[in-house]
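Below is how a single chain appears once it has passed through the pipeline. First comes the sequence as given, then the structure the pipeline wrote out for it. We keep one example in the README because the format questions we get most often are answered faster by looking than by reading.
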Amino acid sequence: MAIAVKISSGEMIDYTPSSDVAAGAVVLQGDQIGIAMQAIPANTKGALAVQGVFDIAKATGTGTAISAGAIVYWDATNGVATASSGSGANKQIGKAVAAASTTDTTVRVRLSQ
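Resulting structure:
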């Protein structure tokens, strides 16, 4: 009997939301982050990307710069990417593949968890 059976390449995972999810939305499931590639209506199975490189919204202003290679976290309270773990409240998204300055509204992130 097989101990494990490959189901997919792991780039996408199934997701059935309880409310509508917009295309491009960052979705938090426990400690796992996924990005909706297209809109997913409530109670309908869709898919979330869990691999790839994405431009993700970030805050601007003092203390919001993110350096290339830095671990990036999702601040679900404010709906932005950040370099701060928020003392464990923010969940890791991946690593920045390009620097984002304090005036940039997005950071380019390679998803990894």
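Strands lie at 12-15, 26-29, 32-36, 46-49, 53-57, 71-75, 80-82, 91-96, 106-111.

See the next section for the split statistics.
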